Prior knowledge:
Blueprint: H1 2-16, H2 19-26, E1 30-34, E2 38-43, H3 46-68, E3 73-78, H4 106-117, E4 126-129, H5 136-150, E5 156-160, H6 161-173, H7 177-184, E6 189-193, H8 202-217, E7 221-226, H9 238-244, E8 248-251, H10 257-270, H11 277-286, H12 291-308, H13 314-320, H14 322-325, H15 334-345, H16 349-352, H17 359-375, H18 380-386, H19 392-408, H20 410-425
Parallel strand pairs: 2-3, 4-7, 4-8, 5-6, 6-7
Antiparallel strand pairs: 1-2
Helix pairs in contact: 1-3, 4-5, 6-7, 10-11, 10-12, 15-17, 17-19, 18-19, 19-20
Amino acid sequence: MSASVWHRLQARLQKSLPPEEFRTWFGPLAVESESDRRLVLRAPNQRFLSSLEEVYRPMVDRAVADLQGASFEVLFSVGEAQPAAADEPFETRYQFETFVVGNSNQLAYAAARAVAARPGRSYNPLFLYGGVGLGKTHLLHAIGHSIRHSHSKLQVKYLPTEQFVNELINSIRFDRTAAFRERYRSIDVLLVDDVQFLGNKERTQEEFFHTFNTLYNAGKQIVLSSDSSPKEIPKLQERMVSRFKWGLVTEIEPPCYETRMAILKRKSKERGHELPEDVARLLAEHVDTNIRELEGAVTRVIGYATLSGQSITADLARRLLRDVFSSPRGQPSMEDILRVVTAHFGVKVTDLQSKKRTNAIALPRQVGMYLARKITRHSLEEIGGFFGGRDHSTVLYAVDKIDRESRQDERFRELIATFLGQLQRAT
């Protein structure tokens, strides 16, 4: 009976407290004994119990009276409490198996796998940084999932930095910083997202500094993420910067074209559809900086097509994503370049991306690479990706060749100038 009382009591308290406050004070409790008239809950230590009694006893008593009546009581004891199984659940979709690996994130992925396999012994701390929507949170959750599965006895906690700040504020407000410190300094694996928000918060940095030292000196694993490298976080204390760099600091960069294509194929398959090749190319070209936006584009296109009963076409994608596809003047897209080149030479895009090396295919391909290099911001690697996954040296060779032929052949030079004019007018 009392197990169900505890379950219902938790539900009642959750409605009355902020999520982080409930997790801090009621998550560490465990059922010690039960009877028809009494429930005994075990707290991790005496300091924790004293704060719990002082601040939350009236709330608990009122909730118990509402649920069971005045004859039922809840008592607290001290002992070694195990964390609740459901405490800080990790998002199911964020696992290593669902992370698409490419050149832009390969090192971060490998380091995350190493940390998950040997917590506290591979890279400690592991510091991941990069722009919004590039997979940092995905990797933190994947580490948590993996450690929970392979090292089930370890206590693993993931939290955004904002939650750490809020819990610290509450602990100071209610004079229970000792319990706050006990909670965080007894963790085996600490995964903290968005540590750039530590900047300009001196008291929080002080607390985090000592938490970091305690865990690190005890051989516990620390994984941190940020939108910038440690030294670029504004108003972050130098001693914090130094400690964040003790282990491995690695950047996650925007995905290259091939990785974007792989992500699109993975995400569309997960949603039960295969994007047509031209639609996938269109999305991979225009959504080139943010994986989260790429996933959102897939969801919008597939969702609309499914609900409306329409086929997934490039025209449909352009209409639905016109806000994403609007390019600034003076910046022709790869789609524009491919359209101009294929129309003039009478070839298909698939020909340009194939392994064919006949002059009828090689020349248009080299012209396309040249134009892309001259009027877009794509890197050599990305341009090579658009043309069938060719490496940067192939793109450099194409640029040099077209430059040379333009200097030597006036008619060819005029053709290239015509292409450039068409592309500038198209934007």
